[in-house]
Amino acid sequence: MAEGWQWDETLFEGAAPHYARGRLPYAPGLAEVLARALRLDGTGRLLDVGCGPGTLALELADRFAETVGVDADAGMVEEAARAAARAGLAGRTRWVHARAEQLPLGLGRFDVAAFAQSFHWMDRERVAATVRGMLRPGGTLVHLSDWKDEPRPTGPLPHPPVPQAGIDALVRRHLGPVRRAGRGVLPHGTPGGESLFYARAGLLGPEKLVVPGGGLLERGADEVVAGVLSTSSSAPHLFGAGLPAFEADLRALLHEVSPTGRFSARQPGSEAVLWRRPDGD
């Protein structure tokens, strides 16, 4: 966790219904790349720590005998369970409302454990050591994030880009100049340096896999609004009674930039970093 910041249960309060619609998808082919690298064959068990509404877990669930998702936000767990049922995966998935710091919770051993853009919210030293112990010898921990060094193509777009700088300024106008996170603030953003904690836990690595992005996506205004409300720094609860006014201002900004309500966004690539528990350990 970031120095000086304390986790609290409101971190993503109200964000879960917006997450699946508002967040950009992982790079196309990510599940296939992971399946080859991890030699997934429909057996074994997957643990997704900080699973959100099941975004990664449900992409991989048909490649395991059982998938267990754990998240500290009750709304995320409920959304994940509903999505699993819609996908016909309810019988192969389990969703647990708990903080990562509460693990292992008697959940048993796993062949693969994943952190998909979630590890920075946790007590990283403690959680890395615990999850290592939950891996079977030879098992793999996967740390997934956007590929930050991906080359960005240039050229004309069919629609205006999402006005991210304007959205950020609007959030600051409504919530103040310092990034909000639950009941606290993150003046310096979320921390990096996760490799140090995985190495300290006795995991072997890193092995990096990069999956390029999928080019241009078309986004509607409703999807852009959902994306804004899906983040910890602009989760719905932070606005309180001012949420309708914020959303009205946001939609006015979007209409000014694109009167058609259509935007172009580039799908990010994905970077998966693999860390393995030694065989015979």
UniProtKB/TrEMBL annotation:
Residues 47-139 form the Methyltransferase domain. Pfam families: Methyltransf_25 (PF13649). Keywords: Methyltransferase, Transferase. Its EC number is 2.1.1.-. GO terms for biological process: methylation. Gene3D superfamilies: Vaccinia Virus protein VP39. It is an enzyme of class 2 (transferase). This is Class I SAM-dependent methyltransferase. It comes from Kitasatospora phosalacinea.
